[in-house]
C-alpha cells in the first residue's frame, strides 16, 4: 500500500510536507491483530524501529500521520497516560465494533419505520476459508419513495443445509430487531439449498411467513441462461476447463501463493461462477496462467503433475484459444447487463 500526502495548506508548517509511506503488500484492512501490540512510544523514539514493517498496519498508519506533521497525535501519544492512549488493538477493535453497531442500529430503525422489507442473502468463503453469508435488506423509503438496499452484516455459517441456513437467517433477523411478520420477499441464487421447493431456505421461510415471495437472483439467472443457451461443444469445454483451472488453484494455499506471484489479482470464492467476468479475466491473464501451469509441471509430481499437465494441454489447444476469444467478444456485450442495478440512485 502506498500513501502520499502534501501538507502545503497547513498554516502551522513553514513549508509543504511530502511523505511517502510504503506498507507491506500483504497488509489488508481488517481488525487489529497480535502485531499491533508493539509499544508506540518505542517507535517514536527509535528511528530504526520506524523502518520495521512488522509492527502492524494500524501502527504504521499512526507513524505515517506523525511523520507528515500531525502534532496533536504526537502530543497525545507522548503526554497521555499509558493506559489511556486508546491505540491498543483491543480498544480499537472495540471502537470498530461500536461504530458498526451504531450504523446497523440506524439502518434497522429506518427499516422498521418503513415497516415492510425483503432480504437478500448469498454465501462466500473468506480468506480463512470460513463460509460467510451476507445479509442485505431491501425496502421502500416512505420519505423519499425510493427503493433502498443496505448491507447489514456477514454471518458465519458452518453447515450449508437449507435447514441450518434458514434457521440462521431467522435468528439473525430477531437479533437485529426485524420482525418476520413484515418480511415480504426473499432473494437468493438458484442453489438447491437456497431455492429448493421443499427443503430449501426459501421454502422453510415461506412456511414461517407465506407472504415472503422468493425471487431468483437476476444476475444468476442471466449467468445460467447464457451457459444453458450455448450448445457448442467447444464453448462448453471452455467453461469446464476455466472452472477446473480455477478450482485447481484454490484447492491448495501453496498454489494460491504461487499464482499470486504471477498475477496481482485476488481470488474470490463464490458458490456460482459469474461467467462474464471470469472468462474476460481469464483471457486477460492467459499468459500468466500458462506460465503458472508450466511452473507447476516442473515442481510437482504424481497426481498433481498429471492434473496440471492435462490442464496445460487443454488451455494451449487451438480449439480452446479460439473459443476463449469468441466467448470474450460475446460476453463483453452482455457484461454491462450484470452491472445494471434495479435500485434507483439514493
From TrEMBL:
Chain residue ranges for the region called Disordered: 1-31
Family annotation (InterPro entries): DUF4371 (IPR025398), RNaseH-like_sf (IPR012337)
Name of the featured protein: DUF4371 domain-containing protein
Residue ranges constituting the DUF4371 domain according to the UniProt record: 46-200
Species of provenance: Aphis glycines (Soybean aphid)
A UniProt-annotated Pfam family: DUF4371
SUPFAM superfamilies noted in UniProt: Ribonuclease H-like
